[in-house]
Amino acid sequence: MTYDIAIVGGGIVGLATARALHERAPRARLILLEKEPRLATHQTGHNSGVIHSGIYYRPGSHKARLCVEGKALMYRFCEEHGIRVERCGKVVVATAEAEVPRLMTLHERATANGVPIELLEPTRLRELEPHAAAVRALASPSTGIVDYGEVAAALARDLVAGGVAVETGVRVAALERTGEGLEIGAGRLALKTRRLVNCAGLYSDAVARLAGARPGVRIVPFRGEYYMLRPERRSLVRGLIYPVPDPEFPFLGVHLTRTIHGDVEAGPNAVLAFAREGYRFAHMSPRELAGTLAYRGFWRMARRYWRMGAYEMYRSLSKAAFVEALQRLVPDLVADDLSTGGAGVRAQAVSPDGTLVDDFRIAATADAIHVLNAPSPAATASLAIGRHVADLAVEAFDLK
């Protein structure tokens, strides 16, 4: 079987990219490959479902532009496909005066990014979130919640209806260039493709190397663990309550998130995972962990962030520490309000100098495009990321 473009990765970014490519090049023969038996199994399937507004991201960055664009596209897609979505809004709370300057930076970024934002005094905050505590806060009314698994399923249905081949249970194990493109070693399938789009998430750097690229980064997996508020205590949270993030660390801190299904999640933290799909503390892949430990960028990152990393690990092992962090946001919350929830793994690209890559990173060559860093807000931005990749493909792959 020979295709014009093979998309590797059946998460929401891969599905949205396949959709955009089909729209831009409807005559191109496309195939999407997913190694798991089901689509959207990993980052998409372990997502809290937040539709981010775009207040966090540096103006002019890919994250800022694609998040704001993608938010509008996501709301429209859900409306067109009958997917339940709610614009519940979010508050970001400064719980100490020292955090207020960082809060004001978020206000400036939101304004620069064209995102509706309201600066709140404590009395106004209590109207929105009666149990939240803050000296100052921001309200983001365009933040919403959705089930990204439902979005992924709708995208897949559209692809199949449009004639795009979607294959699950197919792991890309080898890529070999020929005179006509690439031969894909993928288990039960013998495939040839003229062009490749890599949306492999946690394995995006590995697929890039299989294709002969030098990604310049390595994916280091970080596990985020959650607790759930017990049903009788969900009234403590009306929408979403977030802390002011640390600008030196590309994670948002533990927060409280109402889901589209009515649950309230508390978390996540951010601890090093010992496998790229290490959803539990005890889940370790010796080969993948050895790859992380052999990467000089990991040790440079560890030297830079060891204090924060040690605290995140302590909070992972101590429910009391987790609860203490949540009580800064909602003082009425107590340990008995929480039950153990699930976990997700974030594919975080790390540069050789130890920098945690903050922005989306997408690299294009003559016959391949690699989405090398697409952490949060990638689900929100997925439809816009897909359009961006399709635009790159039109130029790089000469699809005009």
Describe this structure in words.
This protein is an alpha+beta fold. The chain has three domains: 1-85 and 144-216 and 359-400, 3-Layer(bba) Sandwich (FAD/NAD(P)-binding domain), CATH 3.50.50; 90-141, no CATH class; 218-356, D-Amino Acid Oxidase, Chain A, domain 2. The chain has ten helices and 20 strands. The strands form three sheets. Strands 5, 6, 7, 13, 14, 15, 16, 17 and 18 form a nine-stranded mixed beta sheet that branches. A hairpin with a 2-residue loop joins strand 11 (181-186) and strand 12 (189-198). Helix 1 (12-24) packs parallel to helix 5, helix 2 packs across helix 10 (378-396) and helix 8 crosses helix 9. It is globular and about 65 Å long.
